[in-house]
Design brief:
Layout: E1 2-9, E2 14-15, E3 20-27, E4 30-38, E5 51-52, E6 59-66, H1 67-73, E7 86-93, E8 99-106, E9 111-113
Length: 117
C-alpha cells in the first residue's frame, strides 16, 4: 500500500533511469515540495514508495518529471524549445487505505499515464 511511481522511456524502450522528478503536496492553490530525486535503473524512486500506507493521506498531489533534461542527457537531438519540457501530473488520492501507482510512459513528443496497481 502507499504511493509509488515508475517511468518508461517509450522512445528507447527502457526505464527512464536518471530522470529528475519532484513530488509535491497541494494545499489550496499552492504546492509544497516533499522531495526531489533521480529515477534509478528500473525507472523508479530509489527510496521505494513516495509515501507508505501510514503516511499517505487523502488530498491532491503533483509529480513533475523533467522529460527535457532526461532526453538531453541521452543525447537526443531535439529542436529548441522542446515540445515537452516538464510533465506535471496532478492527481488526487481519495482512498488513503489503497495503493496508488502513478506510471508515466514518455517520449520527447508524447506521454500517457494511468492509475496503476
Amino acid at each position: 500500500m502507499g504511493l509509488s511511481t515508475h517511468v518508461l522511456d517509450t522512445m528507447h524502450g527502457c526505464p527512464a533511469a536518471g530522470m529528475p522528478v519532484s513530488f509535491f503536496t497541494r494545499q489550496g492553490e499552492s504546492y509544497s515540495l516533499v522531495k526531489s530525486f533521480m529515477l534509478n535503473a528500473d525507472g523508479r524512486n530509489p527510496d521505494g514508495l513516495l509515501y507508505d500506507n501510514a503516511s499517505l493521506k487523502t488530498g491532491r498531489y503533483r509529480l513533475s518529471f523533467d522529460v527535457a533534461a532526461y532526453f538531453k542527457s541521452k543525447g537526443v537531438a531535439l529542436a529548441e524549445p522542446m515540445f515537452l519540457e516538464v510533465v506535471h501530473l496532478d492527481f488526487g488520492i481519495a482512498h488513503a487505505d489503497q495503493h496508488y501507482h502513478v506510471p508515466l510512459l514518455c517520449s520527447p513528443w508524447s506521454y500517457s499515464t494511468y492509475r496503476g496497481s
